Hints:
Blueprint: H1 2-16, H2 19-53, E1 64-65, H3 78-83, E2 88-89, H4 91-126, H5 133-149
Antiparallel strand pairs: 1-2
Helix pairs in contact: 2-4
Amino acid sequence: MVEKITSIVGEFKAFISRGNVIDLAVGIIIGAAFTGIVNSLVNDVVMPIIGLLTSGVDFSNIFIPLSLEKMNDTIKTVKAAKEAGIPIISVGVFINAIINFLIVSFVIFILVKQINKLKRKEEEEKAPAAPAEDVVLLSEIRDILKNQTK
């Protein structure tokens, strides 16, 4: 029994110390921190601009009531509808989530594009330079002369 536990602990140590597991953990932590930045970008920068362009429409308070019994003119926000016990579909929150997703996707696209550009640049720098034209020409002449003497 002790040997089995020791074996499992050893396997777990080997698994957790692999590079890709640690890279994944770092990625998740950075992703969580990045989410806060993106949420702030969406809520504090993008949404006010969209609200201005749409004459002050606040997407976060767009909802569809599923029951009209308790609904009245004083209930204008998602919070007020929830407090009144009205079942709602929060369309605005969904719109915010879509905008958030599009912004995150675009930022990741730009990031990956730049990383790929840097990798290509490194590969081009590592690739051996093509021989000069005169060297190629001299090599061809040498090869022709070798073939003629045979």
